[in-house]
Please model this.
Amino acid sequence: MNDKISKTLAFKLGALLAAMPLTANITPEQRGLEIAVEVDLRDTGFGDTKAEMEMILANRHGEKSQRQMAMRTLEVEGDGDKTLITFDQPRDVKGTAFLSFTHKEGPDDQWLYLPALKRVKRIASNNKSGPFVGSEFAYEDLSSQEVEKYTYKFIRDEEVDGAPFHVIERYPVDRKSGYTRQVVWVDRNRYIVTQIDFYDRKDELLKTLAFEDYQQYLDKFWRADRMMMVNHQTGKQTELLWSDYQFGNDYTSRDFDQRSLQNAR
Amino acid sequence: MNSDTPEYSTWTERLADRTLRYRWLVIVGTLFFVFGAMMGARNIAFDNSYRIFFSEDNPQLQAFDALQNIYTKDDNAMFVLTAAKDSIYEKDFLEAVQWMTDEAWKLPFTRRVDSITNFQNSVAEGDDLFVDDLVPYDVPLADKELKDIREIALREPALFNRLINDRGYTTGINVTVTFPEKSITEVPEAAAAVRALSAKFQEKFPGISVHTAGVVMMNNAFAESSQLDMMTIMPAMFIAIFIIMAILLRSVFGTLAAGAVIFFTILSAMGMMGWYGINLSPPLASAPTMIMTLAVADSIHILVTFINELRNGRKKREAIIESVRVNFMPVLLTSVTTAIGFMSMNFSDAPPFRHLGNVVATGVMIAWAVSVFFLPAFVSLLPFRIKARSASKANLFDRFVESLVCRRVAYLSGSVAVVVFMAVMIPRLELNDQWVQYFDKGMEFRDHADYAEENLTGMNNFEFSLPAGESGGISNPEYLETLDRFANWYREQADVVQVNTLADVMRRLNMNMHGDDPAYYKIPDNRELAAQYLLLFEFSLPYGLDLNNQINVDKSATRVTVTTKDVPTKELRSLIDRGEAWLVENAPAYMQVKAASPTVMFAHISERNIKSMLGGTFLAVVAISLLLGFALKSSRFGLISLIPNLVPAVLGFGAWSLLYGQVGLSLAMVSGMTLGIVVDDTVHFLSKYLRGRREKGLDGEDAVRYAFQTVGKALVITTIILALGFGILGFSSFQMNSWMGQLTAIVIVFALIADFVLLPAFLLTIDRKKKAQRIEQLDMEPEPIYVRS
Model:
């Protein structure tokens, strides 16, 4: 395992180093990638996590609806993470479990266990830009943010309320993405993302995602307790509240296979 | 100069005298006013949404807003593509559809694009659920695969008769847009982009023809039709008016002077519209033509008297003062009554007509002021060379009056019979507002919408947001079954083109989950199953093609959309009513809702406006009758005047019933509005009649003769001008305006006939009965306030 980590580290450091000597005339693309790599690097090595999530959906009118889920993540070195999401609420989907293997390249693998049918169904679709359980989050917004899924460009450095930020743009590699670009605010001290503006296919501002109440775990890894997504075009919004973050659960890939889906809860 | 000025006995003469003495001040003052008012025109923009026709408290608008708040606030634009080779199921054609679909995503304010190619088709293969574009990006060539695509498309309720039909040579690409509603240029911007894309497509795929339809294009057509009217109707009106004035006045400078009055009046009235904060919408586009027409009537009275006085050998200054003396009060009175008539439109539920009424009322009052102050001052500066000659004594009306006198009872009973017959015709009228048909054939929007209607799908729809009673309740089998039966019931009704419902998605998913077994193309039989299918399906959908536009956030309601042919309002309302009744009979209480949509809003618009205008028209009748009673200084004649004032509207609507058989929104305004205009004829006729009896001591017959001799010709002339002006409006490309113009012209002509036939016949008849005692009494009555000599 250590071996794997060091390999990735070496690759990432290499990428950084390759850019370093040219700091003076480095291209905005290189600078953007550099920042993205740094963000990724600082979150590398968390191993696995487990957390509860509560999703509160609201329409323009203020009508609300709530979903309750639990999410487990297993960090996979050299590829995207594995995630397992189990549903608690609404009642009629309780026990439904969603398993996904993110990949650095190509479509992710996705399965869904339907307790009412007692079967695991593979979702053989390249679509990941659709709304996640009817919310304003797309699956692609929530899935593991691998560096390779975008190309980057550094835009500017700025201060917001006295805190320093890098502002970079990233462009999805997947042509089926719902976005042309995303503008990302990266906290310069902690290298964590605090805000993302999503631009749709006609390059209009579609949504804004704000990460709030970051907590640090294991003295290293930052996780936001609250994520707020606002759709500027429809006026709908979704609030995502995280709780009970647990690291070091000693998950293995056997906890993330099709069989594990059926008794995820 | 001053010492030469004779002492004038009336205040109107003194006023005219002052006006002439300070003529430069009057002219400069007028120019300042016109200029100041014109500055307001900077604020005017084009309103472009069907929504402007509905007030904030319109119940149908509120229902539709409520529905849009639950789901999304959508408008749509549709491209209709027609294949050259008779079939859309060809590789080349499908690639063109794909290209257009991709490009449509980039149109401004687009939120969703639906086409036959990006339809999310679900297929099962063992335990794998494939959800993908119906036509993949590398379009298959093989006949077998193309045939599969065709079969799936024809079977799919969400596509059939919406984006494709069984005729197979057209397909639609529906673009859903959400306007931020921050800027007034959003609609034209979107429409221009839609057209630019059509042009680009046409260039790239010359074999395929493109038509555009949808609400975005309709909204844009409102602005375009206003502009078209401004560019065609207004110039036509200008030319017609100048020709008439040239013929009537036979004086270059007279025509010039009247032209200046009209020009200044329009500029300042439209400028005032800007100061009022009113935007231009199709009804408002007819304001300049109306104001022009009414302004002519004012200035022509003053000019005709002035030129006649010149012909009679008076000096210019004296002729001007005499003209102002004779016309000041009548023109004021007729302007005020006309303004009241137009202001009755404030009772309308449709804001553009309130605005129209106020702008025209403003214009009418400005026209009066400009005619009595600026016009004399301006005329006094112009060199008039008119030969004095004796006025011809021959009267056109003599023979007619003789016949009236001899056969008064026949004329009266004949008139009554005609009025009764026309009144009986009125209830035959049907309310009809088909918004596509608001626009003339020949306008791009109308022609394209008609094409889409004939070759692909319906342009009208209405929606039901059906609650499921509880959070997540849309997965309840009973709910889905009811939804399914409701949709199927509508599908069996005549004129229904397509019904869109979640029930169809559920049936297909259930089939997919059972290995695509057609036996399972039905509603899942338990709630968890349905909810979990939906969850699975939602995980598989791409950006923009989700179900959020059909399901509310709480999953406690879904939206059913019924698309219909463009049928008359009566049929449409019956279709809606029967659907609502079906829900009451067959669905649980929480599902019993009303339909909403722009189509529903237009289906009720005339009725609602007629109801609201009843009050307005009544008030106008009361106000104008009081004013007349006061002006004629006789409550008796104020009451008698009601007959010729109300009869024209009855005759007009009766004739309309015979001509068209249907009425729309704008006609609700006509009775109140025309009342203010037709009353002028009555005022002139009655005041001269009374003057004949009171001042000249004539008996009833001679008084009628006198009235015809003095105002007969003037009334014919103003009627011609007014009928022509509103008749020209009848050529508007926008049905509301054209109908309003036509009916108003008809009413105005009937008004003259009523004043020339019914009114004198009535006066002669009652006169004979009470001849002896009336004369004495009449002599005691004071003369009408403005008829002094």
